[in-house]
Fold this sequence. Notes:
Number of domains: 2
Strand content: 25-35%
CATH architecture of the largest domain: 3-Layer(aba) Sandwich
Largest sheet: 7 strands, mixed
Radius of gyration: 27 Å
Strand order of the largest sheet: 1-15-17-18-13-12-16
CATH topology of the largest domain: Beta-lactamase
Shape: elongated
CATH class of the largest domain: Alpha Beta
Number of helices: 10
Amino acid sequence: MINTKKIILAALLFGGISANAAAFETTARHAILIDYDTGAYIYTKNHDVKMAPASMSKLMTLYILFDKIRNGTLSLEDTFTVSENAWRKGGAASGGSTMFLKIGEKVSVEDLLQGIIVQSGNDACIVAAENIAGSEEDFALLMNETAEKIGLKNSTFANSTGLPHPDQKMSVEDLALLARRIIKEFPEFYHIFSEKEFTHNNIKQGNRNPLLYNMPGADGLKTGHTDEAGFCLTASVAKNGRRLIEVMGGMNSSKERSEESERLMNYGFREFDNYRILSAGQVMAEVPVWYGVKKSVTLVVPEDVTETIRRSLRSQYKMKVVYDEPVKAPIKKGAVIGYAELSDPDGQARKINLVAGEDVAELGLWGKFVANLKYLVLGSK
């Protein structure tokens, strides 16, 4: 028998009349907006281009700290000693963001986390790097190894802080994926990102994330600013059962960062929503079986499928079911025997595996003989 591709056209997924989609533009040089649950890219602009990430690269320093606390290598109660190098490079005299640590001070890992997240302390990052890896240079090697391990394709690190360096680069796409990992993998620490202030050595400092003050549901993650990077932000907002993550870089002022980041978030929540398009166990087709004790087998969806879809274009999404025929017995329940292809209005397609809904045993020799005879005489399977 010759295998042929069988296609079953399905109906439009959603009813309703499409409206014109509203375009979005931003003054940020780099930007991405993704849906936390589905991972869908809602908006991109130079999203995979390496750029200076400034203090947003501290998210990688934090990821390593969180991971070491999780696996027991560190604890929140452990204390690190502040070196003169950390004080000089990351302290107040350096002119950058600082936790105002003192030379020789012993500081807990818990306080360092708050100093990095809330106060964006360069000194706190260097203290953590030196005490974990021996030097900031060796910690940067660990950052690069970790980036490769978790699949960041456009990130290289030379320091733990994000201070200017030609080899300190990240894409906004990598930052969004890293932020998503932090939220998903370390929920026990994520609440720190929403703290609006932290006091150390009697010096109170506020969180620089503008969305914490302007948008209900904003709860993270990290700002950044250098002359090369411009004003930057990695942020997350949870609203009405959805969470969006955005990263924006290359803006010209803190005011522009605040306004553009809020605009992009509002665009994502307003124009897009998550729709369950398929449900686990849903029967998509019943297809004929060759050499089976049953004449057909159902193609079912193995798990729920949710897509992030622009509200105004949802009626233009289409689906078709594809499988190779003939489908031959024996067939095990759960075996992949086809797929559903979801096409968006731009022609981009996603394939979703479909599996057998039940076992179908193979006919014996006599049964196969009868089936072959029937096919030869009647042309029917």
